[in-house]
Amino acid sequence: VKAEGRGHYQYFSESMTDAARDRIHLDARLRQALARQEFRVFYQPLVDIASGRIVGAEALVRWLDPEEGLIPPARFIPIAEETGLIREIGAWVLQETCRQGREWLDAGIAPLVLAVNVSGHQIRHGHFGAQVEDVLRTTGFPAASLELELTESTLMGEREEITELLEWLRSRAIRLAIDDFGTGYSSLAYLKRFPLDVLKIDKSFVDDIPHDRDDCEITLTIINMAHTLGFKVLAEGVETAEQLAFLQAHGCDMYQGYLRSKPVPAEAFLKLLQG
Ligand code: C2E
Ligand code: CA
Ligand code: CA
Ligand code: CA
């Protein structure tokens, strides 16, 4: 029994070491990837439901590893969140997206809203407002065309400071969206308190509409609540015409999903706009 216990312990401790080593290794590779400019921004259309027009895009990061090829964010964002490197990656995504947005404007493309995901690390860092200001100034991208996507859990932190930051961003005409709405710790009180523009209904609620009654009810409730509070609503992960018809019939403002397009590189996004 003693030997077995010891063996078990050794196995456990070795596997922990492996996991820790993997994490350190991936962190080092991610830092290198930043330095070598191996990250790419893909763009997924945000579609106005009433007109069917593309009104913007969400910027989604990918890692173009020279050996492995395109690596999706699910494989590296969680580690970057753990180590805090998401601050640097997020700053790069913001900069690159605004640079691209300015380039599109200069090429005569009609103004688009570009939505960028913001991690809680970036918000808590303290200089986020200054960083955004800096990026807008250096790229010349209009503040009113930038949308920042925050999650419910990010907003649950230091309320005073976050409220101040959001109010400042809003005073600069930057748009604020709540991402993955309905999956986090939500309270009606914070929805009322924060100066928001858009609620993004999480894909998990959209998946089974119009067939799952509960999901339909939840989606309708979110749409109505958002409108009551004066926010726009966007449904994420729309894959079928049936889902879109339901959303349209119930007054949802925008959608995003494979039905229109997967996230694509900048050049392909431009073709979507022109096609
Ligand atoms: P998210 O912010 O909720 O982004 C939407 C995700 O849903 C994207 O996955 C998008 O490709 C996917 N999606 C959109 N429409 C559909 C659909 O119709 N069907 C299906 N099956 N999926 C759809 P992606 O690009 O793999 O990103 C995953 C997550 O990684 C994002 O979820 C976000 O949380 C995170 N992420 C991506 N880029 C960044 C970034 O620059 N910064 C931060 N902090 N997080 C990021
Ligand atoms: Ca998002
Ligand atoms: Ca989302
Ligand atoms: Ca469901």
Automatic annotation (TrEMBL):
Segments forming domain EAL: 23-275
Compartments it resides in: Membrane
Protein origin, superkingdom: Bacteria
Name of the protein: EAL domain-containing protein
Organism of this sequence: Uliginosibacterium flavum
